[in-house]
Task: inverse folding
């Protein structure tokens, strides 16, 4: 059964919460109506990551929100997450599928060939970017832009999550170019009124 993604794909990165406790920020995201959330943790001891992931699982489950863990299949399985998101340098897809069984697996892609390969391998969705300039993550990649997103949309049938430099001001352009969902990090996590920001983006037309 094909995965159907909401228009907003939220990402919770404890390093981007401006000193606010991630659990509090997550509650704000959920209060805004987030229905899928990726937990991205880059610099935290595995035990602390698992504690946060387990708390996030409880919060998201109560709100009817899917939880995706970035990179770490072990953490995703241990906290009973709904899926995992893997980068090009992470565990190969076939090994990930063997471990995750029928749970959701998303793959980061940066060009048409990677997108097609992810689809051939059986990914449930692809992340594509960086769309625009981004300060959240130093990918070493140039902005892909709207035209390449349109090419990716024409090349694959699985859902596309656009990511990288997307804000409330430019999110419409990625939806119009064919993205099923938009991943937004700093523009949401840095907002004073996170629930309000999420609600406006989710209901933008």
Result:
């Amino acid at each position: 059964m094909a995965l159907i993604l909401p228009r907003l794909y939220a990402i919770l990165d404890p390093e981007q919460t401006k000193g606010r406790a991630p659990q509090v920020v997550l509650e704000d995201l959920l209060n805004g109506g987030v229905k899928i959330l990726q937990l991205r943790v880059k610099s935290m001891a595995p035990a602390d990551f698992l504690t946060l992931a387990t708390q996030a699982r409880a919060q998201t489950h109560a709100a009817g929100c899917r939880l995706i863990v970035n990179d770490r299949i072990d953490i995703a399985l241990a906290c009973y997450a709904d899926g995992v998101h893997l980068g090009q340098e992470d565990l190969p897809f076939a090994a990930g599928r063997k471990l995750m069984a029928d749970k959701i697996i998303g793959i980061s892609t940066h060009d048409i060939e990677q997108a097609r390969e992810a689809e051939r391998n059986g990914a449930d969705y692809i992340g594509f970017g960086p769309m625009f300039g981004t300060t959240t993550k130093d990918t070493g990649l140039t902005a892909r832009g709207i035209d390449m997103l349109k090419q990716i949309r024409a090349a694959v049938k699985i859902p596309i999550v656009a990511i990288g430099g997307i804000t409330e001001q430019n999110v419409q352009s990625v939806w119009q170019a064919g993205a099923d969902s938009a991943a937004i990090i700093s523009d949401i996590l840095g907002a004073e009124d996170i629930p309000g920001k999420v609600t406006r983006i989710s209901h933008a037309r």
About this structure: The chain has one domain: 8-202.
